Amino acid sequence: MNKITKFVNNASIKRFRFWFQIVAFFIIIYGGYAAIEIGENLPTFACPYLDKPGGTCFLMGLQHRFTLPFDQFISFRGLAIITSILFFLAGFVFLNKAWCGYVCPIGTLQDWFTKIRQKLGIRYSNYSEKKFKKLKKIKYILLALLILIPLGIANSIPGVGKLSHDWGVPFCMVCPGRTVLPIFNGDFSQLTIDFSSKTKMVFTFLGMAVTGMFFAGAFYKKRFFCFFCPMSAFQFIFKKLGLLRLVKDGSKCTKCGDCYRACDMGIREIADDVENKDIVKDDCMMCFKCVAACPEEGCLKVNFLSKTIYKATEEGFYKRTK
Amino acid sequence: MEKERIEKVKKHIRTEAALEAGQVLKKITDNFPDNPEGMKYFYDLLSRQFSEEILPKNGKKLIGTMCVQVPDELILAAGAKPVRVCSGSFPYDNAGAEFMPAKTCSMIKAIMGLFQVEDFREKFDMLVIPTTCDQKKKTTEILKDMGYEAYSLAMPSRKDDDNSRYYWQNSVKEFAADLMKKTGNKITKESLKKAFDLKNEARYEFRRLFKLRMKNPAVIYGKDAFLIANAYFTDDIESWTAALKKLNDELEKKVEEGFSVANAKVPRFLFTGSPPIFPNMKIPLLVEEAGGLIAIDEVCSSSRLLYDMPSYDEQGLYDMIPAIADCYLKPCTCPCFVPNEERKDKISNLIDMFNIDGVIYQAFSGCQLYEMEQKLIGNFLMKKGVPMLYIESDYSPEDTGQLSTRVEAFIESIKMKKKSSAAKKEENKKDKK
Ligand code: SF4
Ligand code: SF4
Ligand code: SF4
Ligand code: SF4
C-alpha cells in the first residue's frame, strides 16, 4: 500500500493528464461509433453537433428546456429541468471540476495549443490580473443569458414581445464546441455565416468571431476560453457537492507561489489563501498541477470522499523538477 | 610614509580578524563534545574565509552578493562564481566604523571595513546589493564611490501584490541581462537548468539537515548548523553539497544508533532576528554554552538560505527567470517587507514543528527593521504563550558578560517551566491510573 501511495505521489501529473485527456477526447468525439454513451446531461462539452459523440452536453438541453412558458413551470416540463440538473449532478459529483481539467474536449484542445506553442518556443503573454478579473465575470453573464433568452422565446417580454425561434440555443451559436469540434468529423459546415435571417446572421457571425478568438487566445494564453465558459460557472454553483476535492493545509504553506506559477488559470488564492481548506475557485479546472508543483509535504491534497489520493510531497517535487 | 602606515594598519586588522576567527572556531570545537566528523570540512573552510585559496580567480568571474535575495542561480548560469560577502568580523566592523556613521549596523560596517582593508577591486567583477534596507541601499553608492563595480538590484517593499511581483521579475530579468554583459557568457535555458539542478541538490541536502534538526533529543548543535550555512557563502556549490551530504549521512546513522548531543530535557530554542554570521557567533554560543540548544532558526544567514524551492512550468527563459524571481520574493520573511505577516506564521510553524520552548531574538543595534519588528513578533509570541528573550547587541565582545547573565537566567526560567509541566503531566498520568 505504502509503495503505491509513494508511486502515485511521485508521479508526473502532467503526463498522466496528457494521456487521460487523449482517451477522454476520443471517447467524447468518437464514442458513438463504439456505442459508448456516457450520459445525456454531461457537465462537459460533448457537443451534439458532432456526428456520433460519446455523450451529450448539458448546456444544450438546458437551453431547450428553458424555452418554457411561465405557466408550465409547475408541470411535467418544469420537472424536466430539475431531473436534468439531477442527472448533470450525478455525473458532476464524481469528478467535480476535474471534468474541465481531464475530460472537456474544448479544454483539451486548448492544452494542445499550449503544447504546440511551447514546442515552438514561443512565450505566453502576461496580462494584468485586475483587468482580467473583470472580464472573467462574463461567464456568469453568459450563464444568465443562456437561461433568460430561451425564457424570452417562450414568454412575451413587455415592449418586445416574444423572441423568434432563431434565438434558440443562443449559447450554442457562439460556443466553440459547435464550430470547432465537428472539424474532427471532417465537418466544416458550422464554420459559415447563416444569412437566412438577421438574428441567425448575427449569431453565426458572433460564433465565427468567438472561434477566431478561441484559436488566437488559446495560443498565447493558457485556457483562454475557459475564463469565459458558462459551463464552468454552472459547475461552480455545485462545487460543494463534489466528491473529488482539492484541499489545502494553510499551516504548511510558505506562500512560495510555486502553485500559482503552475496554475494555467492564474488562481492567486491557491498560494496566498492560507485560511480556507477548500481552495477550489470558480476558474479552477482541477488539473492538480498545483499539487504537483508544491514542495511542502501534504500542503495541497486531492481527496476523494475525504480519502487522500494524491498529495504534495517533497520527494515527488524533487523527482518532478529533476 | 603615509602609505606605509596605512599598510601597517591594514595588516594589523587582517591579523586581528584571523585571530578572532581562530578563537571562535576553537570555542566552537573545544567547548563542545562529540563534534560530528563531517563538520571538519566546514570548520576548515571557515578558518580560511575570504582567503586566496577560498576565492581563487581561476578564470571564473567572481560576483559578490550581499543578501539571500540575490538569485545566485543566474550567476552560476552565467558561468561565474557567487560569493556572499556579508561579514561577521569585529575587527572589520571596527575598521568600517572609521568612516561609517556611528549608528550603522555592525554587519554593514564590517562589510565596508572588509572592502576598505582588502582591496577587492580587482577580485570582484561585480557586487550585487538588493535594495532591502536603507543601509544597504546607501552602501551600494559608497562602494561605487570607493571604485567598486556595485550593482543595485531593485526590490519592491511589498511581496503580496502582482505589481510588486512583476516589478521584481523585471528587475531580475535586467540583472540576468547585465550579468551576461559583464561575464560575456550567455545564460541559456540549458545553463540555467543546470544551475537550477545544482542549487536544488544543495537545497535537498539542506532540507535533509532541516529535518534532522527536528529530532528531539537533538543530534546536532545550532552553532554547527549556522556554520554549515555560513560556509555556503564562499564555497563552491558542488563541494558544499557533497560535504553536507556526507554529514547528513553521518547524522542519520547517529540517529539510528541512538546518539544525541542533548537530552530531551534541554530547552530548545528558536533563533530569529539579525543574522549571526561567522565569526560573530556570540549569542548562539552563549545560549549553547549555557545549556540551551538552538534547534532551529529563522534568519537569512541560515535556515532561510536554501529552504524555498522554485519550480517552473515551461522550459524557456521567459518562464524560468520569473520562476526564480518569485521564489526569492514571495516566501521571503525579511522585515523590509510590509506587510510581513508571513514571518509570524513561519516562526509559529517552526515552534510547533521543532518542539520549541523559547525564542531568542537578536537585533543588531542600528538595524532598525529588526529592532522595530521585535515588538510585533514579541506580542505575537506572547499570545502564543512562548517566552522570548530580546537581545540588542553588536559585534563587540564587550557586553558578553552582561548578556551571559541574561541568557542564563532565561534558560533557567525555561528549565523550571519544563520541569513543572513535566511534573504536571506525571501527575495527570497517575490520576488517570
Ligand atoms: S471551462 Fe468550459 S471549455 Fe473550459 S474545460 Fe471547462 S467546460 Fe470545457
Ligand atoms: S455548442 Fe457548446 S454548449 Fe452547445 S451543445 Fe455544443 S458544446 Fe454544448
Ligand atoms: S506551492 Fe505549496 S507552499 Fe508554495 S504557495 Fe503553493 S501551497 Fe503554499
Ligand atoms: S488551482 Fe490547481 S487544480 Fe485549479 S486550475 Fe489551478 S493548478 Fe489546476
Structure report:
The complex is a heterodimer of chains A (about 325) and B (about 425). Chain A is mainly α. Chain A has two domains: about 15-235, no CATH class; about 245-320, Alpha-Beta Plaits (2-Layer Sandwich). Chain A has 16 helices and three strands. Chain A has helices at about 1-10, 15-30, 60-65, 75-95, 100-105, 105-120, 130-135, 140-155, 170-175, 175-180, 200-220, 230-235, 260, 270, 290-295, 315-320, and strands spanning about 245-250, 300-305, 305-310. A three-stranded antiparallel beta sheet of chain A has the order 1-2-3. In chain A, a hairpin with a 2-residue loop joins strand 2 (about 300-305) and strand 3. In chain A, helix 3 (about 60-65) packs antiparallel against helix 4, helix 3 packs across helix 8 (about 140-155) and helix 8 (about 140-155) crosses helix 12 (about 230-235). The longest helix of chain A has 23 residues, at about 200-220. Chain B is of the alpha/beta class and about 425 residues long. Chain B has one domain (about 1-425). Chain B contains 15 helices and eight strands. Chain B has helices at about 1-30, 40-45, 70-75, 90-95, 105-115, 135-145, 160-185, 190-210, 220-230, 235-255, 280-290, 315-330, 340-355, 370-385, 400-430, and strands at about 60-65, 80-85, 125-130, 150-155, 270-275, 295-300, 360-365, 390-395. A four-stranded parallel beta sheet of chain B has the order 2-1-3-4, sandwiched between helices. Chain B has a four-stranded parallel beta sheet with strand order 6-5-7-8, with helices on both faces. The longest helix of chain B is centred in the last third of the chain and has 33 residues, at about 400-430. Chain B is globular and about 75 Å long. Chain B starts with a helix and ends with a helix. The model of chain B has no long low-confidence stretch (mean pLDDT about 95). The interface of A and B includes residues 252, 255, 260 and 295 of A. Bound molecules: iron/sulfur cluster (SF4) (4 copies). One iron/sulfur cluster binds next to helix 13 of chain A.
